[in-house]
Design brief:
Radius of gyration: 23 Å
Largest sheet: none
Distance between the termini: 15 Å
Order of helices and strands: HHHHHHHHH
Number of helices: 9
Strand content: under 5%
Helix content: over 70%
Number of strands: 0
Amino acid sequence: MTTAIHTLKKIAIDNKGKLSATFGLVALENALFLLYPLVGSFAVNAVMAGNTMQALLYAVMVLGIWAVGSARRAVDTRAFVRIYADLAVKAIVNEKQKGTTSTAMAHAVLARQFVAFFEEHLPILITALFNVVGSVLMLLIIEFYAGVVALLILSVFAFVLPSYSKKNDRLYFKLNNRLENEVNTIEKNHNPLLIKHYDLLAKIRIAISNREAFSYLMIGVSMAILFGTTLTILSHKTVQAGHIYAVITYLWGFAMSLDDMPRLVEKFSELKDIGKRVVV
C-alpha cells in the first residue's frame, strides 16, 4: 500500500498543474450536483405556485452543471494522455535495466492503471464522497431521521470495509501475477499452459465479479430499508412537493454513490499490488 500511495503522490507532485485544473473542475461540478436538489425543490414549488421565473432557475442550474462537465472532459484528456506517455517511458526504462522486453511491456501496461486511477477513478471517488457525505448532511438538515438511517448504513459499511479490502488485495495479487507473466506464457506457445493460464484468469475474475455482485445486493437491501423508512416518515407529515423531491433526490444520490464504492475499493486493491511491481 505504501508503494502505491508513494507512486500516486509522485504522479500528483510531478503533474500538479495539470491535475489542479482537472480536479478543480471536478470539485466545482460536484458542488453544483450537491446543490441541485435544493434548487429543484424550489423549482417544483415555484411551478405549483405558477411562478415561471423562479422555476427557470432550475434550467440555469442544469446548464451550469453541463458546462462545467464539458470543460472538465476537454481538460482531462489533454492532461492524462501526456501523463501516461511520461509514465510508460519511465516504467519501461526501469524494467529494461533489470528484466526482459516482455516484462517491460507488461509493466508499461500495468503502469497505465495509475493514470487510469487519476483519469477515471479519482473523479468517481470525489463524486462518491461528495454525494455520500453531502447527502447525509443535507438529509440531516432537511429530514433528520432519514439522515440518521443513512448515517447508520454508512457506518455499517465503513465497519466491514477493512475485511472486504483485504480479501480484494489477495485476489488482485493473484490476478496481477498472472498478467505480469502473460507475455512469457504466450511466447512459450504451449497449448496446455495457455489453457491453464486463461482458465485461472477467468476464475480469479469471476471471484472478483461475485464479490462485486454480492456487494451490490447488500447495498440494494440497505437502500430498500432507507427508502422505506423515509417514505413512511414522509407519509405521516404534511410537506410540500418540493421537499419530497429534494429528499428523494438526496436519497438517490446517496444510493448511487454508495454503489460506486465496492468498485473503487477493488481498484485501489489493484493499485496497491501494481505499486509493488512497477517502478516509475
